[in-house]
Design brief:
86 residues; mainly alpha; 2 domains; 3 helices; 86% helix; elongated
Amino acid sequence: MEIKTVNDFTLSLFKELVLPVIKKEVNIGKNFSVLRQIYHALILAFWFKKNVNFKNQLGLKQLTMLIQLMKHLKLRKTENSTESNN
């Protein structure tokens, strides 16, 4: 067999068998939940940096509202995990 043929075969096996398992684990697995949270936080931070002007009252109001929303969501998540443990 040619080296190129072996490489092509190996690559196709990787794409068909290994990569889907890795993608699934990264997207929904417990082991990567912190990584997903960090990823979402970075997206939100970049959006805020681009869209919110912190030099005026409106920007500060948006930031305050976001912080309140994040606290509310964290509280709901805590309550839901407490209920599921009972």
